[in-house]
Amino acid sequence: MRLKAGVVAVALLSLLAASLVKAAAPENSAELVRFVGLSGEVMPGVVADVQPLAVADSLTGVAIDRDPGPPFLVLRIGLTTRLDTYTSLRLRVLSDGVAYGSAESVFAPDPGFRSTRDVAFMMPLEAMAGSHLVIEQTAFVIGIHQRTDFDLGLTPQRVDELRAATASPLKLQSDQTEVAP
Amino acid sequence: MAAATLACLLVLGAAGGVIAWRYHNKFAPVAAGSWVELPNNGIELRLNSLRVADEAPPLYGDKPRLPVEGAVFVIADFSLRVVPGGVGPYTVTVELQGGPERVWAADTSSDTIYSILTAAKASGAEESGTVDFQVPASCLDEITGVAPASSDLGFAPGPLFAAPLQR
To answer: Angle at which helices B2-24 and A2-24 pack, to 10 degrees?
Structure first.
């Protein structure tokens, strides 16, 4: 009887500990978000670098394009892998608490390689300045997702510059792989 | 109560030890030329050779594929046969194994082990073919062999097909 009670007590303590871990680190907990500039580690062994590339009124070759419609913030995402991973990465642009998603997931390349691709986010022009990119690991680890928040450094002037310099319609670069430097 | 707590901690410690041991003993090396039956899969696999190449066989059409600059192909030559009376699911994907946490998937769309498997199922005989992997040339020294994908998830060590890398 005592043994059973002990086992139950330890099981309950374990559950309590797991709940506390989860409660201390909910999905939107700041402790799990790593804030970086235009480059940072998005999961162990995988480093991303981000370049705000263009502000396009229309795109070619993508299903999400609408004409006329909201413009696109186009980011060129580079991923370099040191360790193996099967995890896909989810990308969102955050602006004033609103998340703008991308139609695609991004996968890290095999070790030793670097991949780059353009990812477009349909969003209001006025929301682009001050926006951040969040890259999130989609693997489920006791309900915790690691997030990395990239400050895109976009001011209203920079958004205007990018828009003025962008051809329309813009063709996005699909995955390109090279050996990591 | 204290005894039960101690027993649970011992069990947890033992489980942790097993996990740690398992992590460092994921694979059981298999010499080239040996047939290995993949657990619960209904097929036997044999690695014939492992070589480095500057180009890979064409997939569609007749142009060989070239690696990206600074990379090379590692080409694994496999034979495969279906175990008589074996139970499926008859699926296999292989990965090139490097150092800890370093794995390369078969080159895009080139996972021809599936076509070897299809041929072996159709003929009921041994069939051979190649699977190629693209790796940075600087990583060649760390390659330890080829292993079925996810074979490190079971309790028993999975087979690691090892062969001298012919350059």
So the answer is: 60
**Which of A2, A3, A84 would best serve as a mutation to test chain B binding (most B beta carbons within 10 A)?**
A84
Q: How far away is chain B from the Cα of A180, in angstroms, using its nearest Cα?
A: 8
Interface check A178 vs B, CB under 8 A: yes
What is the CB-side half-sphere exposure of residue B22 using CA atoms within 13 A? 14
| pLDDT tens-digit readout, A97-108 | 999 988 777 888
ipTM over 0.90: no
Residue of B7, B69, B105 lying closest to A110 (CB–CB): B105
Distance from CA of A21 to the nearest CA of B (A): 18
DSSP string covering B97-131, please? E-STT-EEEPPTT--THHHHHHHHHHHSS-EEEEE
How far does A18 lie from chain B, in Å, by closest CA? Answer: 15
Residues of chain B contacting residue A114, judged by C-beta atoms under 8 Å apart: none
CA atoms within 13 A on the CB side of A57: 9
Residues with Cβ within 8 Å of residue A115, at least 6 apart in sequence: A78, A79, A108, A109, A175, A176, A177, A178
Q: Which of A31, A72, A32, A51 is nearest to A163 (CA)?
A: A72
Give the predicted TM-score (pTM) of the model. Answer: 0.75
Chain B residues with beta carbon closer than 8 angstroms to that of A84: 101-104
Looking up tokens 């012919």, which residue turns up?
A: B166
Give the position of tokens 């506390």: A20
**Per-position b or e across A15-29, b if 16+ CB within 10 A of its CB:** eeeeeeeeeebeeee
Per-residue pLDDT of chain A (181 residues; tens, 9 = 90+): 555 666 666 666 666 565 555 555 444 444 478 899 999 988 888 999 999 999 998 887 665 555 567 899 999 999 998 877 666 788 999 999 999 988 777 888 999 999 999 999 999 999 999 999 999 876 655 555 678 999 999 999 999 999 999 987 888 888 889 999 8
Which residue in A25, A42, A46 sits closest to A34, CA to CA? A42
